[in-house]
Fold this protein.
Amino acid sequence: MRLEGKAALVTAAGQGIGRASALALAAEGAQVWATDLNPRLLDGYEGIDGVRAVQLDVLDKDAIHKVISAMPAVDVLFNCAGYVHSGTVLQATDEEWNFALNLNVRSQYWSIQAAVPRMLRSGGGSVINMASVCSSIKGLPNRFIYGMTKAAVIGLTKSVAADYVADGIRCNAICPGTVDTPSLADRINVNADPEAARKAFIARQPMGRLATAEEIAPLVVYLASDESAFVTGQAYCVDGGITI
Ligand code: NAD
């Protein structure tokens, strides 16, 4: 197994990409701390080998430090938590801007700040940050705040990678296209015509379909594993060709 002996923390592991990734990491032999704000979403981990389900709100800096310091080691940190705000610059509010920066960016800064000293002590580790193709890679309509935060994630990723490149700590970002997850369903269902909204999401994907969360998880496993030992500071698109 590719991740035998590694301890991994995954945020927002209750559903969607975080859950698919936590399961994939555990299937490769990692000891996984699967965390989420919503404890009910963690119930499904009961009985799954190698997974410890822990409630964690990534907007709570002290709670992040508490969970990380309780881990025996932190070999892998997958910062998956994030929220998609809809709207243009004219529709954005300061409250949305602050919430998105806190959840999508500041939480990653906090968890990395908590994990890096542990990684330095143990001789290295892999940080994986959730970005998006909607970022510095591609502008998408109606995603002003979201695209801004995910561009910041890519900058944060490269900065961390540069600072610890000689210390065995790697830091990479993942940039999915549109992935069929519960929160995407929420974004679809708020529309007056959900069926048309779903078709529009599919239409912007050149393959004519959405990704599944299980199609993103293998990249998380690769970046967590020693197979990617020479890879750092990169933003990897898994996007069904949306950025061709
Ligand atoms: P999702 O949005 O369906 O689920 C998000 C999870 O985050 C939920 O389990 C929720 O309880 C948890 N969460 C919310 N606030 C939290 C907090 N403060 N602390 C801890 N957990 C919290 O999952 P998803 O669609 O797979 O998205 C996961 C990540 O992937 C996000 O960062 C998102 O921006 C990114 N992403 C998603 C897509 C997509 O199309 N779904 C595309 C690109 C990037």
